[in-house]
């Protein structure tokens, strides 16, 4: 009798263990919408594509991520992605948080000029509590479950007019920026004329000469054939190096089993690491750009000091406005990495 009761109890417990799993998986969507700004050919897109592939393979098809490049779910307006995610129109985001900083100002933290001056600093930040605890807590409060982060790459100054060796060289030029007040302030500090527009609009504006230049990573310059749009001068001022974040809407993440949550997180970490590798590989050589008739200029130490000095005012303004405590922690991580 005792053995039979034990068997019945074990059977019931097993049933209870299976039922929640079955219910959880039955609530899975047939497709999860992943939004990103860029299209094929970029390291950013390759990272998102690999993420989707790894998730599909490792969950045996239980979680199927479909990419929507060009922020097509929000008609190309990348600054609306976070709002769309909160409303359920987007399930997964792969991109830099600055695009969503109009909704959450702390998301602009990694856009501060010269915050992360080199790969060593980026690696230190990627491994830090400042990112993985403090910043990720901000993302969670905003309705996003952060999975992993990788390097976006330095956004260099690119234009169709002439070499930009010093800040005064960009004065009066019409420069495309994303919908970020900080980027506008940075351009204003150099007496340039910042113009906010989507990437889709920017391409036609560059081709027609409606804008003179923009900030873009070198791998994106190559992927989008920006020299064919008349952009023949690049200055490696290395001022802004964002992070790309892989994230899922909190309500969606909670519908997945703990096992699948871990699988998705692991896939994001692997994809983020590959993204960082691709970005650095693309930025390592200027040879391909030079073959296309592009002048790639590396400012001298004196000129770099001028670039850093001129953006200090917007840096101080936005540090005070965004989250001074968080940014101080990031600064400390970067300073420590320079000593190592």
From TrEMBL:
First and last residue of the signal peptide: 1-24
Transmembrane segments: none
Pfam families found in the cross-reference section: DctP
Source superkingdom: Bacteria
Keywords: Signal
InterPro entries with a match to the protein in the record: DctP_fam, TRAP_DctP_sf
Name of the protein in question: TRAP transporter substrate-binding protein DctP
Gene behind this protein: dctP
